[in-house]
Amino acid sequence: MGFKGQHKDKKRITYKAEGDGFQADALCQDGFTYQIHMRNDRAPTKYLKQGLSPLHARVMGLFDSIVDDNHQCAMDNLYNSGAFCKAAYNHRQKVLCHGVTQMGMRGIPKHVQQLEVKNRKEQMAVRGTVRAAVLEGDPDCPNLVASSVYDAKPVHYLSMVSDELKWMEVNKSVYNVDSGEVEVLKFLRMSNINKYNKEMGNVDLADQLRGTYRLDKSVRNRKWWWSIMFWSIGVCLTNAYIMYVKVNMEEYGKKKSEPKSHNDFRKAIALYWINPQEYEREIKKKAQSTLDRK
Q1: Shortest CA distance to 98 belongs to which of 113, 80, 78?
Q2: How far is CA 34 from the centre of its chain?
Q3: Structure letter (DSSP) for residue 5
Q4: Which residues pair with 29 in a beta bridge?
Q5: Which of 71, 122, 137, 222 is most deeply buried (CB count within 10 A of its CB)?
Q6: What is the mean pLDDT of residues 258-268?
Q7: To which H or E segment does residue 150 belong?
Q8: Which pLDDT value is given to residue 137?
Q9: How many helices (H) and strands (E) does the chain have?
Q10: 10 Å Cβ neighbour count for 109?
């Protein structure tokens, strides 16, 4: 949540286009934001008492909103670690985590770790190297797999949802500058990385949809509560659009209706906010016209 003014909880953020402001940990799926925890709020005490860091305690608090058992959650590399995978599995919903992770102090065994090679010739020699290990003998953390694969750089991965590790062929459409045509490029990717790529972008999708038609693009957020308020409204509008599309898309083998575009959906809401009485009359006219045709 970008914020231009002064506040004790404002964070210095150099790695996001949004810039300095407030941050929240989020639990999202398909662009829908289910739960957030503001980082300036205290982490849940019950998880801090379990010896978890404030970062992991906040995420465990997000997991409290999950209702299904053995929910699979793709983690950002900032959060994932062997200790956290174990804690998540011992949550009442037995959450199964997976995702790339940083190498230092994250539960990656030394014989699985791969160091980055700078020399180009040495890079080509080690590229595609795969190492893996499975944790055994710990009933509180079953099926934990630690693996690494050397791509352009070494990628380390922790997973409680992988039943196999294998190379798989992936097709990607790319533009060939020589032929001037779009061609299919075939390449190999590890199965666990492929699963992660498909499931990880939920938070990014939510941010992208919220930022496309945001209300505060031309507003200088000098008041801290403006920043949080506009962000919250944006999240609510994004969630509303996700649910709108889901309801109107094909379900139970029968297509209901063609949903509006994101732009038309936001426009309809804006027109209603500007003049609700007039917009309600237009809706009633359209509904009556539909009934007359039937």
Answers
A1: 80
A2: 11
A3: S
A4: 32
A5: 71
A6: 89
A7: strand 145-150
A8: 92
A9: 9, 9
A10: 13
Determine the Cα–Cα distance for residues 263 and 260; give it in Å rounded to an integer: 8
Q: DSSP code of 52?
A: -
85's CB contacts (< 8 A; 6+ apart) are: 97, 107, 141, 144, 158, 160
Q: 110: exposed, middle or buried (C-beta count within 10 Å: 0-12, 13-18, 19+)?
A: exposed
60 three-state secondary structure? helix
Cα–Cα distance for residue pair 188/184, rounded to 1 Å: 13
In the predicted model, is pLDDT for residue 91 greater than 70? Answer: yes
Q: Which amino acid is at 283?
A: I
- The rounded percent of the chain whose pLDDT value lies above 90 is 53
Q: Give this prediction's pTM.
A: 0.82
The pLDDT score that the predictor gives to residue 291 is 61
Spell out the residues 6+ positions from residue 182 whose beta carbon is closer than 8 angstroms to its own: 173, 174, 175, 176
Type and span of the H or E element at 218: none
Q: What angle do CA 139, 144, 146 make, to 5 degrees?
A: 145
Go through the chain and tell me how many residues it has.
294
Cα–Cα distance between 97 and 77 in angstroms, integer? Answer: 11
Element (H, E) at 155: strand 154-159
Closest among 159, 174, 167 to 194, alpha carbons compared: 167
Task: Give the containing element (helix H, strand E) for 168.
Answer: strand 167-176
Neighbours of 17 (CB within 10 A): 8
The CA distance from 181 to 174, in Å, is 8
